[in-house]
Amino acid sequence: AQRVTQPEKLLSVFKGAPVELKCNYSYSGSPELFWYVQYSRQRLQLLLRHISRESIKGFTADLNKGETSFHLKKPFAQEEDSAMYYCALEAAGNKLTFGGGTRVLVKP
Amino acid sequence: NAGVTQTPKFQVLKTGQSMTLQCAQDMNHEYMSWYRQDPGMGLRLIHYSVGAGITDQGEVPNGYNVSRSTTEDFPLRLLSAAPSQTSVYFCASSSDHFSYNEQFFGPGTRLTVL
Questions:
Q1: Angstroms from A100 CA to nearest CA on chain B
Q2: Which of A52, A90, A93 is nearest to B30 (CA)?
Q3: Looking at chain A, which residue has its C-alpha nearest residue B103?
Q4: Residue B99: pLDDT band by 50, 70, 90 thresholds?
Q5: What is the SS3 string spanning B55-77?
Q6: What confidence tens digit (pLDDT) does each residue in A56-82 have?
């Protein structure tokens, strides 16, 4: 069975500092990976997905199959980045397995 | 276009009571699912449906039933509520059940079972 681990429950950084959210997964096949974000009082929404190779709101994520990781990075954090972030793995057919989440707090 | 809607927003039940959490989407999505969100555990899949008349179990289905009589609606039933079912419940939909699609989430229902 697949598993997603986000080792940090809380990340606190100052505005303008780099931020990196760690995500490790275990899955025997070839997974598709996502980052979802939940801002305060908003719905959970897709931030980015590996298959799109995109950068959204300055965030990027690289799939490292050797280390089974999909860490999320942003070089200069902004206060509006404060949110709950979830890494998710799709093994097949839209069924997502989520990590436990990392709360990011960007201080002014 | 309301997207995914859920009712109620909050609910308090006593142990043993039953209730239905409602979920509807107006995007003509084939795939719908229910997750529960618990602190430190992320979201866990309860049940899902790949189209009207088709449902299947997710990771944590015990204590919950679902049905999908229309494309738009996907209610979640708690037959006999237990304190372990205290959680925030999210409904989600996606355009089809093929892989790698974005899932759209509802606002959530916060359920407390006393």
A1: 4
A2: A93
A3: A46
A4: low
A5: EEECCCCCCEEECCCCCCECCEE
A6: 899 999 889 889 999 999 999 999 999
